[in-house]
Amino acid sequence: MRNYFYIKRMNISLLIGAIVILAGCGDPILDIEESNAYHWQKNMNETEFEKLKEGMSYIEVVKIAGGAGDIVKKDQYRWNDELLMTKTYIVRFKDDKLVDKEVSEVKRNKK
After folding, report:
1. pTM higher than 0.90, yes or no?
2. 8 A C-beta contact, residue 67 and residue 75
3. In the chain, fewer beta carbons within 10 Å around the N or the C end?
4. Residues 6+ apart with CB under 8 A from 69
5. What are the UniProt keywords, alphabetically (predicted)?
């Protein structure tokens, strides 16, 4: 009976330890986005785009942009222009390193 209570107490201690560890592990991208004063700041602007350099990791790009990009396809992300919404910024990664970037004009449907 004594071993039963010892094991029960150990399991509770492990559970509490796991909760404490998980509580300390935030989502770094969410932390970056929540630090913005305005929701649109998670997009990118031309000045931020120019700061992007070959070899940067995805999280470094997210820090510069102020938010996560939308995944276009494997290892390729898109950020909308935060000012005029007339451009998109496409960034490609290989092995979590920036290898290419480009600016695309947004095509609007004419009615």
Report:
1. no
2. no
3. C
4. 44, 61, 62, 77, 78, 79, 91
5. Signal
Tokens of 44: 């990118």
Q: How many residues does the chain have?
A: 111
- Spell out the domains of the chain, with CATH numbers in brackets: 27-105 (3.30.1450.10)
Instruction: Give me the amino acid identity at 45.
Output: N
- Cα angle value 70/72/77 (rounded, 5°): 55
Which of 6, 94, 89, 4 lies closest to 54, judged by CA?
Answer: 94
**What average pLDDT does range 60-77 have in this prediction?**
95
The more confident residue out of 38 and 62 is: 62
- Residues whose CB falls within 8 Å of the CB of residue 107, separated by 6 or more in sequence, listed in order: none
